[in-house]
Amino acid sequence: MRYYYGEHEAGYRRLRQAGMTQWSDLFGETETFDAFPNRGFLEEVLGRLDLGSPAEVDVLEYGCGTGPAACFLAARGFRVDAVDLIPEAIELARRFAQERGVEVTFGVQDICVLADEPVRKRYDLIVDSYCLQSIVTDADRARVFAAVRARLKDNGYYLVSTAMYEPERSYEDGFRYDEETGICYQESGTGPDAVEIDGVWYVPHRRHLSSTALRAELERAELKVVSQEDGNLVCTRSS
Fold first, then answer.
1. Angle between helices 68-75 and 87-100 (to 10 degrees)
2. What contacts 7, CB < 8 A, 6 or more positions away?
3. Which residues contact 17 (CB under 8 A, 6 or more apart)?
4. Bridge-based pairing state of the strands 152-161 and 58-62
5. For 66-100, what is each residue's pLDDT tens digit?
6. Could you tell me if 12 and 64 lie in one domain?
7. In which band, very low, low, confident or very high, does the pLDDT at 196 lie, cut at 50, 70 and 90?
8. What is the DSSP letter of 158?
9. 94 and 63 Cβ atoms separated by less than 8 Å
10. In contact, 104 and 95? CB cutoff 8 Å
11. Residue ranges of the Methyltransferase domain (predicted)?
């Protein structure tokens, strides 16, 4: 099992049992399904991008969770595909979309695996709503960016919302932050992604990069950063 699967599988199971509606509810950060964390960013950026009629705009959201951003986009007329690697999250997403009367094509998909699959469709918009921070290793992140770049239309936009490095951020016991790489490790047993640091075994947990480091990473992946405000970025294909 990959490092990013177990936490999210358990989290969505707990979310469902507690009658919550989205991942951020687990941390007391949202009050309603429609008040998802990057809604303000999407509202602002969609208002200034030259996209044309939403009915002609194809959108892919990966790591969609229970689908609040996907439903938001579909309610505004966009043609939305949305994927997550956790089946229980997709079950909830389909239910919430049906309850709201919006049409989204949901599917179970690991974005880290998508780079190896044939490109069946290209998109005007690809959206990351706080998924990227949980894709930690260099190799996995490179695969995500390769999957995005291959599926983004030549004039398309890649919209990213992700947690960033914050000097004042504190990490709980059992977690260790590596300032050189921006990786936050969680103390754990051995596994396929485990690393030993000072005699203790850890697994990758989060990636919190500085603004400069994140921009450089995207540019190495041939994704041009058009605008950036903290962890909210608008990108295009660089070539």
1. 30
2. 134, 205
3. none
4. unpaired
5. 999 999 999 999 999 999 999 999 999 999 999 99
6. yes
7. very high
8. E
9. no
10. no
11. 59-156
| Cα atoms found within 13 Å of the Cα of residue 20, Cβ hemisphere only | 23
Residues 127 and 179 in one domain: no
Q: Which domain holds residue 117?
A: 3-164+209-237
Tokens of 210: 């500085």
Distance CA 55, CA 58 (A): 8
Angle between helices 138-151 and 211-220 (to 10 degrees): 60
Length of the chain: 239
The total number of structural domains that make up the chain: 2
Local structure of residue 110 (DSSP, 8 states)? -
pLDDT score of 30 more than 90: no
> Same structural domain for residues 42 and 122?
yes
pTM metric for this prediction? 0.96
The amino acid sitting at 97 is A
Do 187 and 135 belong to one domain? no
Q: Using an 8 Å Cβ cutoff, are 67 and 97 in contact?
A: yes
pLDDT tens readout for residues 37-71 = 999 999 999 999 989 999 999 999 999 999 999 99
